[in-house]
Amino acid sequence: MIETAITRLPGIDALPQLTTIEALPSVTLAILLLFVGKGLSARVATLRRYSIPEPVVGGVLCAAVVCALYYGMGMEVDFELGARDMFLLYFFAALGLNSNVASLRKGGWKLVVLLALAGFYIVFQNLVGMGLAGLFGMDLRAGLMVGSVSLTGGVGTTVAWTPHFVEELGIANAGEIGLASNMVGMIAACVVGGPIAGWLIKRYPVMPSADAELEVGTLYGDESRATLDYAGVLLALFWLNIALMLGHGVSHLISEAGLLLPGFVGALLAGILLRLLGDLLAPNGRRMWKLETMQPGIALISDISLGLFLVMALMGLQLWVLEPLLGFMTVAMLVQITLVVLFSVLVVFKAMGGDYEAAVVSSAFGGIALGSTATAMANMTAVSREYGAAPRAFVIVPLVCGFFIDIANAVIVGVMAG
Q: Is 418 exposed, middle or buried (0-12, 13-18, 19+ CB in 10 A)?
């Protein structure tokens, strides 16, 4: 379950000991770290005040310990994190199953506005990245890897684009730049999201509406509300697995169409399709489609999957890979993070209506533009647990950054990469 070996790493004269922790212990450690994060968040007022997501607390703590072991003892710890991607697929399949297509009308003009803001920011983010790459004497197109490829697109998009940048454009270290940018961006997105919402709520006294209902991702803010039963959870797991299998086929079709999109898009679309078909064919909730019965189970699985995905994504960070690119990465990420915070506070909040829902969406924009859809959802979940529910935000953000943005990003990167 734990294997050790000796390997020589570039730039290291000694022979570090490589310790590989297999899948089952890695998942078990992730569960423990999620408990640690929840415990620290409950006891440390600062973490609650700034709405730092609980999985981030445990994940960053693990990454810091692993980094200390590397530099202090010459030990490289490598986790087998294959289950991480499965948790992400479950999370997005759950979002899809809980998304009523009719709810698009609830998003209304705000859905269009957020999509336009995010699309504009992709272009702006890439121009900034390319400009910084030029200042450091690098290929301008390498700047796309500290732009929307890694920051807006996330790990999946970075991995999907890396072969093109390396093999077609000749940028040998494109993968390392992109993954390092995503590491820093994801942490930053989680850290800045809560403070952005907190500052806006205090600066412009806004409160959630009294009749706001909790959605997926916030249902378990108060666990006492949940009513779970064996059949409901089993039914939820059944349809989630159906969504994952169908999503695999959808992802294959997307790939055949020539679009480089992460796999979770297929799971999200499959969940939405199943929900639409279920509502049309069984509007009264027939035997195998009892939506009201399985919704608490879907919400529970969604929350657990999101938490474990974030913990595992962060605990697997190898912070020492940033060392060769430290100067460029430091400048690039400081600039990108500062611009996202300013854009969220000065533009997104006002454009989305200047109300409580807009503040919650602003907290998510850091996840949209710096980390991933998962971090955007984690930011909104943390804020809504602290201040109150934001149901429209939980409709708009997943639809925009879970599907539309990935398509827009693929098109824009393809044009700017040349």
A: exposed
Q: What would the two tokens of residue 190 be?
A: 């989680």
What is 48-104 written as a DSSP string?
Answer: HHTT--HHHHHHHHHHHHHHHHHHHH-EEEEE--HHHHHHHHHHHHHHHHT--GGGH
Q: How far apart are CA 109 and CA 400, in angstroms?
A: 12
Cβ(139)–Cβ(156) below 8 Å: no
361 confidence band (pLDDT: 50, 70, 90): very high
Per-residue CA distances from 289 to 30, 98, 245, 293, 313 (Å): 32, 13, 18, 9, 33
The number of beta carbons lying within 10 Å of the beta carbon of residue 5 is 11
**AA identity, residue 56:** V
pTM of the model: 0.71
Q: At what angle do helices 174-203 and 356-370 cross, to 10 degrees?
A: 170
Mean pLDDT, the chain, integer: 81
Indicate whether 13 pLDDT > 60. no
Q: How far apart, in whole angstroms, are the C-alpha atoms of residue 137 and residue 147?
A: 17
Q: CA-based Rg of the chain, rounded to a whole angstrom?
A: 21
Main-chain dihedrals φ then ψ at residue 333, nearest 5 degrees: -75, -35
Whether 211 has a pLDDT exceeding 70, the answer reads: no
d(CA 402, CA 154): 11
Q: What is the pLDDT of residues 259-271, one digit of tens each?
A: 766 677 788 889 8
Q: Report the number of secondary-structure helices (H) and strands (E) in the chain.
A: 16, 3
From CA 408, how far away is CA 404, in angstroms rounded?
A: 6
